[in-house]
Structures are given as C-alpha cells and as structure tokens.
Amino acid sequence: MAEAALLLDDITCTFASRDDASKGYTAVKNSTLAIAPGEFVSVVGPTGCGKSTLLNVGAGLLEPTSGQVKVFGEPLKGINKRAGYMFQGDALLPWRSALDNVTAGLEFAGVPKDEADRRANEWLKRVGLGGFGNRYPHQMSGGMRKRAMLAQTLIRDPDIILMDEPFSALDIQTRQLMENEVLDIWMAQRKAVLFITHDLDEAIAMSDRVIVLSAGPATHPIGEFEIDIPRPRDVAEVRNDARFVELHKAIWDVLREEVLKGYAQQKRV
Length: 269
Ligand SMILES: Nc1ncnc2c1ncn2[C@@H]1O[C@H](COP(=O)(O)OP(=O)(O)OP(=O)(O)O)[C@@H](O)[C@H]1O
Known about the structure:
The chain is an alpha/beta fold and 269 residues long.
C-alpha cells in the first residue's frame, strides 16, 4: 500500500481495571490497521470489543499503551488535526443555531465570521439543510441534527474522517438516506474514512474494505475483506446484489463466533 493516510501500528491499550487497579484490562492488543488516502474502511466487531478505543487512538484522543499512530507518514502527537470526527451521540451545542454549530470549528480556527457563514451555508445546502440554518437543535429532527453534525465535521475539509456509529440512532429510512449522502460526498471528495459500525450490511454497502475484530479482551483484527462491488452504490439496492450476499456470508462466518463470545462476556459482567 502507498503511504497510509492513517496507520495504527501494533496498538495495545490497557486500561486500569475497575475491580483491581493493579491488574488492568487489555482491551486492544497488537492491532495494526492502515487506511490508504481516499479509502473507505469499516471496522466491525462484537459489542464492547474495542472499536471506539481504536478510533479514539486514531483521533489522538487516547494515547495507546504501546504502538504508534502515523498520519500520512508522520508520527501522531496529541490530537489528530488532519481528522474530523463524527460520534454516535448528539454533538451539537443546544444554544447555537444549526449555522452557528456548523461554523464553530472554523471560528475556533480563526476563520472570519463572514467567510465561516458562507462556507457553512454551502455545507448546509449540501447536506439538505439549506434554509434551516436558523433552527436550534431542539427544533430539528434526529436526522436533521445528524446532517448538521455531518456538515460540522466536513466543513474543515479533513483528510481523514473518523465515524463511530454515526447513524445508529436513526430510523432505517433516514439512516439509508444519510448513508447514501455520505457516499455521494465521499465519491466527490475521496477522503480516507474509518467507519465503525455494528451493522454488517452498512459496512459492506459503504466500504472498500471491511475489517473484522475479535471479541475482547486483547482485541485484534481477525479478518479483512475487499468489497469489490462497483460504485456508485445505493445502500438499499446493493443489498440485493449477488456479490453483496456472498460477501455478507463470508464475513458473517468470521464475525458470528466473535459476536457470540462478546455476548457471553457481557452477560458475565
Ligand atoms: N477509559 C476506559 N477505562 C476503562 N475501560 C475502558 C475505557 N474505555 C474502554 N474501556 C473498555 O474497553 C473495552 C472496549 O471498549 P470500546 O468502547 O472500545 O468498545 P466498542 O467495541 O466500541 O463497544 P460498542 O460496540 O459497545 O460501542 C470495553 O470493555 C470497555 O469497557
């Protein structure tokens, strides 16, 4: 692979154990994961296995216990400034309008208000919120809030986009609309994407490559699948594609056992 946009190299993350601080819990162990510039990679794995931990390491929000992160070949120190993040929960500031939420990152970066507003209005249009810039988060539906968050993430034009189950709270129709919108934007801009999801269908429909993680502790990649389905794809229609069905079966064969292990572990906790 040419130089990776994001390389997680031999990452191990050990957290202090809740019950016994001297013991520690190794959530992720010796995990290596590389995303090429312009590549869309999804990571799937059982609940609690360490997906968010890996994403936080890539974002520079969590320092690994061992291993190294490289961003376009440069060792990462502190926050990953070339990445934009979109997390599961609501990240909008309730006291700011949609427009002012979208401009927030630019304002912190010192972009003049006029310029920030102009760019935010363009992004609001691109995500289907043209004309809704003056709405406050409580005046928007869950889908509208997600669109605003997407604009908020993309307006800074990050080279790497990190998404942690961004649409899991949405109903299936809104979710598919959002997924298609993300794919349209990604097709036009081709940024490196690391997409975390529980949903194997979503992972296959969106990605160039799907990486399967083992159940924890000591989570690591145990399978990697090229998604050789032509683009552009419609996330709803692609599910009927014969190759989609074949890939789904192959990945599920690897994932199934890990999901069962992960479930058994959660029941024990
Ligand atoms: N700061 C922390 N301190 C202690 N343990 C942690 C910390 N962060 C995560 N963990 C533990 O590490 C493991 C992996 O957590 P993580 O959130 O990365 O999993 P996940 O795969 O993203 O979960 P989910 O699928 O439920 O979103 C879990 O057992 C979690 O309890």
